[in-house]
Design brief:
By secondary structure, the protein is an alpha+beta fold. It contains 7 helices and 11 strands.
């Protein structure tokens, strides 16, 4: 595994740790596994981002890793990256009841080499989100602009979870909202580590696409990273976003494969402990 691939996987693990602390969840880390479990029943807050198992014991280790999610009935994502093992891990996940969810390229750019000479969209302002009302607007745009639009109940859950994470302007995970002539139309977020900024949740409402807004939001996240002393920008690219990121200078490092587990239909998970 190359250095950049290791950095990207390490940044995702750092985001898991941040969610675990901020949402009072559980982060389990061993030489073979990194997993995040919280009481917030959404895959953004429950996942396994690294698993390197021995082929002889892979089924037992998968069952053990899935146990917390299955016991509480919490949906989760399993991320397969370059350090994942054994080679047949994806097939074994399918056998354990997970379903293929998506493939997305993991990309990176040196901030000093990023291309920034793009015209700023007329009428676009980009603001940090540091209060609950602004975060409500952010979540509404984010949830509606997704490839699979998020139901209202899930948007409300995510809003409450992000509020729980705190609204300190200097927090490691910072939300940004884009307004076109005053109307909220786009989102982004920056997850900051000492050397790396992860570009998160770049979304634009369908009616506002094709105007360079996604590019402007991405560049703003990179600027946040540069101001904090970061040297590398990383992200996971959707099919719609990939051409935008390539023009900025991002290059593919590897491809994430993600598998999803959903609990059987039943009563909703209580959030008493969240």
């Amino acid at each position: 595994m190359g250095m950049r691939a290791a950095i990207i996987e390490g940044t995702v693990a750092a985001l898991h740790r941040y969610y675990g602390v901020a949402l009072r969840g559980q982060v389990y880390e061993s030489p073979h596994l990194t997993s995040l479990f919280t009481a917030w029943p959404d895959t953004h807050f429950n996942s396994i981002c690294r698993a390197a198992f021995a082929a002889a014991t892979v089924d037992a280790q998968i069952a053990s890793a899935l146990q917390p999610f299955r016991e509480r009935g919490v949906p989760m994502l399993w991320h397969i990256g370059p350090s994942s093992a054994p080679p047949e891990l994806a097939a074994r996940l399918l056998a354990h009841g997970l379903a293929f969810y998506q493939e997305e390229p993991a990309m990176a750019v040196e901030l000093a080499r990023a291309h920034e000479a793009f015209p700023h969209p007329d009428g676009l302002t980009i603001e940090p989100v540091n209060d609950a009302a602004g975060l409500r607007e952010w979540v509404e745009v984010w949830g509606v602009a997704m490839r699979r639009p998020m139901p209202a109940a899930t948007r409300d859950l995510c809003w409450r979870a992000f509020c729980e994470m705190g609204l300190d302007p200097n927090r490691p995970y910072r939300h940004l909202i884009g307004r076109l002539h005053g109307e909220p139309v786009a989102t982004a977020a920056a997850f900051l580590t000492p050397r790396v900024v992860s570009v998160e949740q770049v979304m634009t409402l369908p009616a506002a696409r094709g105007r360079g807004i996604g590019t402007a939001m991405t560049l703003r996240v990179l600027r946040e990273g540069r101001l904090e002393g970061c040297q590398l920008g990383v992200l996971s690219a959707s099919p719609m976003g990939r051409p935008i990121y390539a023009r900025i200078g991002f290059r593919e490092v590897f491809v994430w494969r993600r598998y999803r587990w959903d609990p059987p239909a039943g009563p909703p998970v209580r959030l008493d402990s969240a």
